[in-house]
Amino acid sequence: xxxxxxxxxxxxxxxxxxxxxxxxxxxxxxxxxxxxxxxxxxxxxxxxxxxxxxxxxxxxxxxxxxxxxxxxxxxxxxxxxxxxxxxxxxxxxxxxxxxxxxxxxxxxxxxxxxxxxxxxxxxxxxxxxxxxxxxxxxxxxxxxxxxxxxxxxxxxxxxxxxxxxxxxxxxxx
Length: 173
Ligand SMILES: [Zn+2]
Known about the structure:
By secondary structure, this protein is mostly helical. It has one domain. It is built from 8 helices and 2 strands. It has helices spanning 10-15, 17-23, 26-29, 33-44, 48-57, 100-115, 129-139, 149-165; strands spanning 58-61, 90-93. The protein has a two-stranded parallel ribbon. It is globular. The termini are far apart. The mean pLDDT is 88. It binds zinc ion. Residues 109, 113, 130, 133 line the site of zinc ion. Zinc ion (ZN) binds next to helix 6 and helix 7.
């Protein structure tokens, strides 16, 4: 995988499967060919402005199929030196063993969280962030678990019921 040569149409290459693969640095963050393919295919199916956002602001990693952890170079989270682009803002961790029938919707769902600026470290994270991400994923045309609004709503209701049942002293944080 290499950058386009002089004379190539940069704009077209940027949007091609090869261009998306290169710009996301998938060879560094994702070991698994199948998962790399799912990520590229998912991005090509997104609305154009969301696809550009994902390429510029998201980086994807997985731990692979045979590892418990992985150490990756920090440059993964720096702008591509060959492009004058902002620093990536979101690190998306994907499971290589996600069921194939759901895989695209799961990746799109994670991109939806980034697009909706769902910051897990922030107290402003909406309670129904999963339902919001699933709804948007469905609006983008994906089907499967990542776009299953009813399933995510049930999970939210379950966790709310669990929290309500806990003694108040254990509700901190
Ligand atoms: Zn989610």
